[in-house]
Write a structure and sequence with these properties.
Blueprint (H helix, E strand, L loop, with lengths): L3 E6 L5 H11 L5 E8 L5 H9 L3 E3 L11 H14 L3 E4 L10 H4 L4 E5 L11 H8 L3 E8 L9 E8 L6 H28 L1
Parallel strand pairs: 1-2, 1-4, 2-3, 4-5
Antiparallel strand pairs: 5-6, 6-7
The structure holds 5-O-phosphono-beta-D-ribofuranosylamine.
Length: 195
């Protein structure tokens, strides 16, 4: 079976992108990252890709703070297709994906979210979990559809909420779990898509 080719979209630190990169480098994940794109020119995820010699590009969203304009989605779809991406991994990408990007990668666009979906979709899910007083939360890798964190679930892992947790400590514990879960989910899809 050949390597699965990944495109990654992120707006921030890119620690999940780094986890995918590390899993590939240490031989846990038979994949290749062919393109990293960000809507934030100064995002750390782009710095990481640059330092690692991974092709990367900025997405021009025309100055809109949260909208993902049609032309920008077309640009991302074309860039990812040109790079030969099999699967697009959202890694902290802060804009809602719509058509035509979804149509260009049907069932081939996934996201990682810091809760046990369908609980706590949307922003700062770890704070939502703390506010709700739950004893456990977690993280979810899911297919992307037009909703906010609503697509079919691929893998989930639980994370306990410990006495004394604040938003920072809980988010950190969830992220450590995310960094194991995302490469596992990509590996699972690789078997399904290329096997
Ligand atoms: C992660 O917590 C992920 O669940 C959410 O955004 C965050 C991205 O973090 N979708 P990073 O940029 O991968 O460090």
């Amino acid at each position: 079976m050949r390597k699965i080719r990944l495109g990654v979209l992120g707006s921030g630190s890119g620690s999940n992108y780094q986890a995918l990169h590390d899993a590939i480098r240490c031989g846990e994940l038979d994949a290749e990252i062919v393109m990293v794109m960000s809507d934030i020119p100064q995002a750390r995820i782009l710095e990481r890709a640059h330092a690692q010699g991974i092709p990367h590009a900025v997405i021009d969203c025309g100055g809109f703070a949260s909208k993902f304009p049609l032309s920008a989605q077309q640009h991302v779809a074309q860039t990812m297709l040109d790079a030969g991406a099999d699967l697009i991994c959202l890694a902290g990408f802060m804009r809602l994906i719509k058509r035509p990007l979804l149509d260009a990668f049907p069932q081939r666009l996934i996201n990682i979210h810091p809760s046990l979906l369908p609980a706590f979709p949307g922003l700062e899910a770890w704070k939502q979990a703390l506010d709700a007083g739950v004893a456990e939360t977690g993280c979810t890798v899911h297919h992307v559809d037009e909703g906010m964190d609503t697509g079919p679930i691929i893998l989930q892992e639980k994370v306990p909420v410990l006495p004394g947790d604040d938003a920072h400590s809980l988010h950190q514990r969830i992220q450590q779990t995310e960094h194991r879960l995302y490469p596992r989910a990509v590996d699972l899809l690789r078997d399904q898509m290329l096997g």
